[in-house]
Amino acid sequence: MDFVKLGEDVDKDNYLIADFYIETDDILKNAGELAKESSNGTWTPLKTAKGYTSNLSAFVFYAKELYEIEGNKAAYIKVAYPIELFEDNSVPQVLSDIAGNILGMKIIPKARLFDIEIPQRYIKTFKGPKFGIEGVRKYMRTDKTRRPHVGTIVKPKVGLNPEDTATISYESWYGGCDFVKDDENLTNQRFCPFEDRVIKVLDALDRAESETGEKKLYAPNITGVDMTERAQFVKDHGGACIMVDILVAGFSKVQEIRDQGFDMIIHGHRAMHAAITRYERHGISMPVLSLLSRLSGIDQMHIGTVVGKMEGELTEVLKNKEKIVSDLFGMNPCFPVNSGGLHPGHIPEIVQFMGDDTIIQAGGGIHGHPDGTIKGATAMRQAVDAVMEGVSLQEYAKTHKELKKALEKWQ
Ligand code: 3PG
Description:
The protein is an alpha/beta fold. The chain has 2 domains: 15-123, RuBisCO large subunit, N-terminal domain (Alpha-Beta Plaits, 2-Layer Sandwich); 132-410, TIM Barrel (Alpha-Beta Barrel), CATH 3.20.20. The chain is 39% helix and 18% strand. The chain is built from 17 helices and 13 strands. The protein has an 8-stranded parallel sheet with strand order 7-6-5-13-12-11-9-8. Strands 2-3-1-4-10 form a 5-stranded mixed sheet. Strand 2 and strand 3 (72-82) form a beta hairpin. 3-phosphoglyceric acid is lined by residues 153, 155, 157, 183-184, 269, 309, 339-342, 361-365.
């Protein structure tokens, strides 16, 4: 078995290609060990290997030394994984191969999986987003206007009871939000039991829809040990959307929910991603996790903001976006979500780099408005309207006092 075949032509229809950054003292030798450990080998030759198991060997076909760092050499390598290695429709199993043991090998102190390319044959085994951008837009009746959606996260993120959560949700929708979601750390705590909250917030949604004449969406966070039951509860009470903390819950749970066919929009929050993605010399990049989230069936996906409170450069956010919206053998694109420290003043810049197909969410940027939630939501919506009309926020604010107050507070 040869785990290093530099320059070998790789048939991209039959191999998954993984790109790694590594730091190690011997690039080729240890890159070969990485390919071996992540496919059919281990640290020592095996008496149990059969002739036919060699078909599943991964191999390094490209390596480029970059520089010396902390006594090691840094390099980019590309590894080809035969597609037969992977279980159909299983993000967890892919990760166990290409980001499993290998990220903890002593001989490679740093290793980062920064990109993957997956052949059509394997992509086709995944369902992907059921709704995607067009499905969500159709549901929300914005398929003609094509404007960005405005969302909010009920704040304070934890502590409110179901009644207050429902009131704040109603005010958000009434003021102009399309979308209301639970925060990432609100699930089924005693202070706000899931079922009570879902019933009350969905009642508030009905009221907001009939009073505004607009479609509204609520994403209760179903993350927990009984996600199927929680999703069923939302469905039984007329909900159209659920939220999952993708990485906290795990891709298998996300895929299970998608495959159970609830016919509800799945909103994906990436809480905990930074533990995996943030350190640029190790871990897994956010673009890779974005792509895997799309495969697993997420319809609305958090990808960063550039301008808000969370870390994330423009180039990375654009790569995340590309992974979830670009052509992928006919798989639906996810609706990109920008969230974290946003307020109305950020909207022009976000639309400039994201385009109109985006969901812009503000928690503090709505519920921290000087005149409260309704005016805060109105200000967000006014900022979107200004951008869609090609008018600067400052100009628009002259005749829209909610936006004016928001800009005075935050800009
Ligand atoms: C999120 O889930 O993205 C954050 O909780 C957003 O909240 P913020 O708008 O107040 O930063």
